[in-house]
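User: Hi! I'm working on a homework problem where we have to compare a predicted structure to a textbook description. Could you give me the structure for the chain below?
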Amino acid sequence: MTEDQSVRNPLPHPTLKQVDEMAPLQFQPLASQPTPTFWSALNTLKLDKLKLDDAQQPISGWLEEGREVVDRENGDRRVGVDGSLGVGGSSFGEGSEK
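Assistant: Happy to help. Predicted structure tokens:
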């Protein structure tokens, strides 16, 4: 294989036998992590502006990637920590607490 071919096709395609032997793809549910400032901003928004309006409100958040940490209590094993969706006081846009 030439260098040009390896750049275009960096990974070989699995054979049908390899595909049959692969474990089924599974997805981990995404956990949410609202900060205390999010709840404070929501409280202020609801009491001062929205009042009894229960219409949907746009918010913004961030995605924290999963990572590995070392578990020193169990023989320095690497343990995976799932990612999460975070929202904070600035999630409601302009005029919200930061």
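For your comparison, note the following. Helices lie at 3-8, 16-21, 36-50. The radius of gyration is 23 Å. Good luck with the assignment!
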